[in-house]
Amino acid sequence: MSRVRDRTEDFKEAVRVAALSHGYTEAQLAALMSSFIIRKPSPKSPFTNAAIKTLESIRELERFIVKHRRDYVDLHRTTERERDNIEHEVGVFVKACKEQIDILKNRIHEDEKSGSAKTWLGTRDESSRLDLIAHQHGVVLILSERLHSVTAQFDRLRSMRFQDAINRAMPRKKIQKKPEIKPAEPSKSNLVLKSDVSNIGDQEVSTAPIRVQEQLLDDETRALQVELTSLLDAVQETETKMMEMSALNHLMSTHVLQQAQQIQYLYDQAVEATNNVERGNKELSQAIQRNSSSRTFLLLFFFVLTFSVLFLDWYNN
């Protein structure tokens, strides 16, 4: 192995000489030389800026869910309308994040088809371009998984809300039946006993309790109708929410399938990148061996040449 020499100072000196030859002032020269110490950050690509913006949107969604978690679950803190508004806001957030992720996917596919994606150093090398595309697919996959984890948290909160609504609607029917049925039976028995004991032929006295009983039955029927109507509305609302949840679950399953395909694609790209790295290492080792062997050959050549010249000089003398 040959000894490695640091040529950084030589490079700085060459840059300084070239700057002076181009007429740089002292201030410009000082700024140029300071750039070797404090490097300016490289400009971010549009894909990186869009990915950072999408990540910020997902974090904002997560903060919103954490902030309104107790308001959404606790029945005594907010009304149904306020909880519906929270759910609507979360849906808008999720839709916006999903659209941003789809834009990133479409941009990757366009760059992949056109072959115009810039590599890390701005070169056009094919292997570097494939590595960059694989990296972008990984970024999109991470964003999709992050969004899925956040939406899964809100799905658990929404299932708790639906379960509470069902638990509130079902026992209320049993509780309201008991106080209405019990008073009706004793009134009926009292009327029967009274009719049996008196045994009077007066029709007005016997029909009055029957009318009271019919009125009680009508009131009970109306109360049951109102209760059934409210229960039906709650069931319809729950059914609508469950349909929305099933649609979201179907959407998430589709995304999971797409993510599985992306993972397979990333695996293939990673294998190809690994092969490229191994091939590059082999070429580097071969170049180092050639350099070492050529240097040894040159040393031997000059050594033999020197002795040949000395021998010829001695022979001539």
TrEMBL record:
Q: Which domain of life is it from?
A: Eukaryota
Tell me the Gene Ontology biological-process terms attached to this UniProt entry: protein transport; retrograde vesicle-mediated transport, Golgi to endoplasmic reticulum
* Domain named SNARE-complex protein Syntaxin-18 N-terminal: residues: 5-86
Q: Where in or outside the cell?
A: Membrane
Main localization of the protein described in the UniProt heading: membrane
| Presence of the UniProt keyword Lipid metabolism in the record | no
CC annotations in GO: endoplasmic reticulum; Golgi apparatus; SNARE complex
The record's section on Pfam families has: Syntaxin-18_N
Q: Which Gene3D superfamilies match?
A: 1.20.5.110
Transmembrane feature ranges? 297-315
Membrane protein topology class: Single-pass type IV membrane protein
As given in the record, the signal peptide range reads none
Keyword annotations: Coiled coil, Membrane, Protein transport, Transmembrane, Transmembrane helix, Transport
In the record, the note on similarity to other proteins reads: Belongs to the syntaxin family.
The molecule here is called SNARE-complex protein Syntaxin-18 N-terminal domain-containing protein
Species name for this entry? Answer: Panicum hallii var. hallii
